[in-house]
């Protein structure tokens, strides 16, 4: 997959989460705080068939992907031939925030970063779409529950999904066969056992080939991608951080430690990691055969096809905690969101474009085939036009499983994710002597930020 996809995913999750999450969240919430919440009202009327107007769209898409999305957006011209779509790519959330704050927003906003949704919604920076959904009698049940969850906040629907990312397990079939492993692991116990079988050490005890690396942060190893596999909950029913009260977190970190201990400790794992290539390059550890298994999203299939086409691999749902066998087949999901910003000049036309990009089967399938992401409605999943290689089908099955989990939307953006991932890094390095006490400390940190935001901080 091209560099633009690498930039797109990095901006959406890893870069914002691990490099500048706190600063980005502060900018977003302070900028959005200048916009008063939008009062619910009537939906703006759609344009007439012969109306001439321009819909401005902001997105982060560039290069080839920009062309794919622009072509999909222009499908609206079949219904409204005199409408012009002005698609401005390479516009990130900061630029979008500034445009709303300055009173000159686009008509349609496309964002890769779903963890900002709570701030967008709670401040009214994204308009409530309920009046439009009600007027047009849209059945949201055609969108999986997890996806409906990450496009709404506290019952307010201020965005729609436009394609999705789904995470699962990648495994090297040749390495499995060489060790007599006939099927992918379904439980975390099996994952641990298979990882040990698949690992090879050099004579000096250093790692030559790893069955599965548990370190965080590393490639797609982050707490939010792992949490569904252990039933770990970020936020409890009371709206507070629940790491110390959700048993899955302790199970997850104990699993991580077992595998790190097997490899000989944190230092040996870090030394091995240092010799692996960039996540999005052809030198990715899985693509070069240095990793037998790893977690990643459906987009990795396109990277492999482009960079390492001879790799003999398969995909499967991520293994789950042994006591959660009935949850196998699900996984973590996130995706691109599309919305009407506060102050949009053509909200009625914007909604027509959003319907096209988030609900029209042919439009979704064209984008899914071009971008190699999962289309976000049930009808688009079963379209005969959808390109479905066997490795990609795994992610379609996860998407349609009814067992997907998404991150909760909070008014503090991704600050809670950063807190957990920072803790994971300290834990694996042996800097946390008491796991239970450490989880309680993370709860206190997150709850303090939630309290400050709740009081207008």
TrEMBL record:
Keywords: Signal, Transport. Pfam families: SBP_bac_8. One of its GO terms (cellular component) is ATP-binding cassette (ABC) transporter complex, substrate-binding subunit-containing. GO terms for biological process: maltodextrin transmembrane transport; maltose transport. Residues 1-35 form the signal peptide. InterPro entries: SBP. GO terms for molecular function: maltose binding. The keyword Iron-sulfur does not apply. Belongs to the bacterial solute-binding protein 1 family. This is Carbohydrate ABC transporter substrate-binding protein, CUT1 family. It comes from Amycolatopsis saalfeldensis. The lineage of its organism: Bacteria, Bacillati, Actinomycetota, Actinomycetes, Pseudonocardiales.
